[in-house]
Design brief:
With 173 residues, the protein is α+β, with helices and mostly antiparallel strands. The chain has two domains: 106 residues, Rieske Iron-sulfur Protein; 42 residues, no CATH class. Helix content is 12%, strand content 27%. The protein starts with 6 loop residues before the first strand and ends in a 5-residue tail after the last helix. The structure holds FE2/S2 (inorganic) cluster. FE2/S2 (inorganic) cluster binds next to loops.
Length: 173
Amino acid sequence: MTTAGVWHPVALSASIEPGSSAGTHIDGKEFVVWRDNSGAPHVWEDRCPHRGMKLSFGFVRGDHIACLYHGWQYDTAGQCRYIPAHPELDVPGSIRVPVLQTVETAGMIWMATEPTESAPPAPQETGETVPVRSVFFGAAIDAVLAAIETTPSRPFSDEAAAPVLRQIDGRLY
Ligand code: FES
């Protein structure tokens, strides 16, 4: 049975180099996107189970990501494997970070909100990913769209504006 997880693009592949991490948020929830040294991407909740530090502030060592605060290390399944203050401790299996289903395709890293058997949306047309800047508007979405659509001197063509407007409208095609 297929479940109802929704895929979200969370990072450009080129932005997350092996051995690096970055923070992002979707619908008000924070996530760490990181790539282990073998190149595999991971998306987890951005919260260390110890004292809640953001794991996106941490550092990657091989196939572990380590928290910046007290150095607890987590393997690629989210399981804590090493606590520096107790190096001999066999870490309980209950100390783990919630991990999300992650796929890399079309030049992007995607996460699913719930486990799903579906694939992320296929890339449009050429399949190329063109990175653009994020822009913050302190206004209602309808006002932003109306302003863009009625601006006579906007610096891009209608054709170029179409995908921009779709993104602003909060939908992914
Ligand atoms: S808060 Fe992460 S190791 Fe302490």
